[in-house]
Automatic annotation (TrEMBL):
This is Membrane protein. It is a multi-pass membrane protein. Coiled coil: none annotated. Keywords: Cell membrane, Membrane, Transmembrane, Transmembrane helix. Belongs to the resistance-nodulation-cell division (RND) (TC 2.A.6) family. MmpL subfamily. The lineage of its organism: Bacteria, Bacillati, Actinomycetota, Actinomycetes, Pseudonocardiales. Residues 205-330 form the SSD domain. The keyword Ribosomal protein does not apply. GO terms for cellular component: plasma membrane. Its main location: membrane. The chain crosses the membrane at residues 176-195, 202-223, 235-255, 267-293, 305-328, 360-382, 501-520, 527-549, 555-577, 597-621, 633-653. Pfam families: MMPL. InterPro entries: MMPL_dom, Mycobact_MmpL, SSD. It is found in: Cell membrane.
């Protein structure tokens, strides 16, 4: 580690050029190839997948999008007596616009048919629904066709129009990273206030910006070889910018400390590499290992998110060990090395906590409990289109459908089967709890019933209707009957993730505990760290539920748990490493805790504030799941840095005393100053 960092310091020009070439090369390649993001979720064993398969065998496997239009000035379903032509009554303005709009939709690429206008009409005759059928499934048509379709819907020629379906959903929340700059600007202000040096602002921000730029280009290229959802770019930027500034800051802080203690630039950097650099490597690996736990869920959709986030974290950690030393060579002489006057405050806090660990532990646990309380109302599920960004075609369609046809109009259940002798009896049974259209006979002996709930898509009653419909379809319809549609697919997606959550939690916690045990040669330190991280996870989930209500996207707890478990390990590593250094010198756990908190308290809280500012900037983007992740990770890092690492960890370690350092086969404490220690 020291050799790599020292070489980068000596060959600063070469390293900077290599990073700029990498940034330019990856960026050019990403622009040349374009993105191939896919938001499709493959659930081979799901009931909704079986329903889609039956529809494909009957020749109805292409995307079927519902286009909803509303006329501002008259009915859409026929002639208007106020408009007469040479042959008598002429179409009213609403119907004329609808006919022209339908013709434009029919001319789009891959469209095979459009229901003849006016289609399904609302009771007030102002809203109509047309079904636009494509020649392939939405996943095969891709984002290009989706954007062209959405553009045609937005340009409805005087009508208010929206679209509902898998193809339209691809355009609901395209990635947007404009707020990332606001987060970096806020982080720069914190760095300037905390460290009083413009160089200390530029170095972490430049390091994070260059590495995340490379990461986003790499994620775009990665989308051509594996399933990567488009939301991955925002998640990769969110994590990369947060940890990138932090990793650079931890190395820079240790370097400044060495310079203040009289070491030359090269010697101070060598010490920083041997201490903080090692911690950066372990922290980055821990975050990636935690993210890799998402693979245990077994969904390519989540594998893509995990891979994108891991690429971003690894590149930012590598930049902190290569690009930062090179930039230091150029800017080190301009760095302010004013004395650190804040260590005494953190030492006083640590002495207070270690003097009365019991009350401080209870106070910290009370804060966590209050934040975690809303988690009791957690309900997993994919939110309906009514929560999509304002102005999106999907949200417009949801609003028009509810206004014109009722709350369940955007949540059709498609009951599909063969052998339709009892379809009539099934329809009669379903009419007691939903609106059901007449049976439709499809080629190959396949029948189809369209069931419209009387409640909104995200209403728990709609989920109960789905469950009862599946039971009745098999009992009254036929043994091979299946229920599909958007609501059914979302419910199957949520169930698939929920079933695998125990394995995911066990994998992330278990691997993280083993890594910490290997690094610190301790049994209790990793176990208590895991318990505290679980508390932080509960508080984070509670905060998200309180802020956004329900339902919460089923994969959000997976990402939040993996992300915050890895990020919290960052602070655990930096804090415990300094405590362990002090403990090795004198063997006094309480004094070591005080020394460790005094040495790292300001840096950890400043780093947490910086990371939180980056995360919270993502709480204002269009994509709801990214807003949830931004709020959740903001709460997580602030709670973890301020309450857990600066209060709960010191209090618990003081209570455990010498037991903290027990490990099978450990020898007695060696009271030797660590090589390169500035103390």
């Amino acid at each position: 580690m020291t050799a790599l960092v020292s070489w980068c310091f000596r060959r600063a020009g070469v390293v900077i050029v290599l990073w700029l070439v990498a940034l330019g090369g990856l960026g050019t390649a990403a622009l040349h190839t374009g993105a191939a993001f896919r938001d499709t979720v493959a659930l081979p064993a799901a009931d909704s997948t079986a329903a889609a398969g039956l529809l494909r065998t009957a020749g109805a496997g292409g995307a079927a999008e519902r286009v909803v239009v509303r006329s501002p000035d008259g009915p859409v379903d026929g002639t208007d007596r106020f408009f007469r032509g040479p042959g008598g009554e002429a179409p009213g303005p609403g119907r004329a616009r609808l006919d022209a709009f339908a013709a434009r939709l029919a001319a789009l690429p891959h469209v095979v048919s459009v229901d003849p206008p006016p289609g399904e009409v609302s009771a007030d005759r102002r809203t109509a629904v047309l079904t636009v059928r494509f020649d392939a499934p939405a996943a095969d048509l891709g984002p290009g066709t989706a954007e062209a379709f959405a553009a045609a819907v937005r340009d409805a020629g005087g009508l208010t129009a929206g679209a509902s379906g898998e193809l339209a959903a691809m355009t609901a929340a395209a990635p947007g990273l404009g707020n990332a700059g606001i987060g970096l600007l806020a982080a720069a202000v914190v760095l300037l206030v905390a460290f009083g040096s413009l160089t200390c602002v530029l170095l972490p921000v430049l390091t994070a910006a260059v590495s995340v730029g490379c990461a986003l280009a790499a994620v775009t290229l990665l989308s051509h070889v594996m399933t990567v959802p488009k939301i991955s770019t925002e998640i990769a930027a969110l994590l990369g910018l947060g940890v990138g500034v932090d990793y650079a800051l931890f190395v820079l802080t240790r370097y400044r400390q060495g310079r203040r203690d009289g070491a030359g630039p090269a010697a101070a950097l060598a010490v920083a590499a041997a201490t903080s650099g090692r911690s950066v490597v372990f922290a980055g690996v821990t975050v990636c290992v935690s993210l890799a736990g998402m693979v245990t869920v077994g969904l390519p959709f989540l594998n893509g998110i995990a891979a994108a986030a891991a690429v971003s974290v690894l590149l930012t950690a590598f930049a902190a060990l290569t690009l930062l030393p090179a930039l230091l060579r150029l800017l080190a002489r301009r760095m302010s090395l004013r004395p650190d006057g804040h260590g005494g405050r953190w030492a006083r806090l640590a002495r207070a906590v270690t003097a009365r660990p019991g009350p401080y532990t209870l106070a910290a646990l009370l804060v966590v409990a209050v934040l975690a309380l809303p988690m009791t109302g957690l309900r997993l599920g994919v939110p309906d289109a009514a929560l999509d960004p304002p102005g999106s075609v999907t949200r417009t369609a949801a609003e028009l459908l509810e206004e014109g046809f009722g709350p369940g109009a955007d949540a059709p259940l498609l009951v599909v089967g063969t052998g339709g002798e009892s379809v009539g009896a099934l329809r009669e049974a379903l009419l007691a709890s939903a609106d059901v259209g007449p049976p439709a006979a499809l080629p190959g002996g396949v029948w189809l019933l369209t069931v419209l709930p009387r409640t909104a898509p995200a209403d728990p009653a709609t989920g109960e209707l789905l469950a009862s419909t599946r039971v009745m379809a098999r009992v009254l319809g036929s043994p091979d009957a299946h229920v599909g549609g958007v609501v059914a697919a979302r419910a199957d997606f949520s169930a698939a993730i929920a079933d695998r959550l125990p394995l995911f939690f066990a994998a992330v916690v278990g691997i993280s505990v083993l890594l910490l045990a290997w690094v610190f040669r301790s049994v209790l330190i990793p176990l208590t760290a895991a318990a505290m991280n679980l508390l932080t996870a509960a508080a984070t989930t509670g905060a998200v539920v309180f802020a956004f209500g329900g339902p919460i996207e089923p994969y959000l707890p997976v990402f939040l748990f993996a992300g915050l478990f890895g990020l919290s390990m960052d602070y655990e590593v930096f804090l415990i490493a300094r405590i362990q250094e002090a403990w090795r010198r004198h063997g006094d756990t309480r004094a070591a805790v005080v020394d460790g908190v005094a040495a790292t308290g300001r840096t950890i809280t400043a780093a947490a504030l910086i990371m939180a500012l980056v995360f919270v900037s993502f709480a204002f983007v269009d994509a709801r799941v990214v807003r949830e992740a931004g709020v959740g990770l903001t709460v997580a890092v602030l709670l973890d840095a301020v309450v857990v690492r600066c209060v709960l960890v010191p209090a618990v370690m003081t209570r455990l005393g010498a037991a903290n350092w027990w490990f099978p086969g450990r020898t007695a404490v060696v009271a030797v100053e660590p090589a390169g220690s500035p103390r």
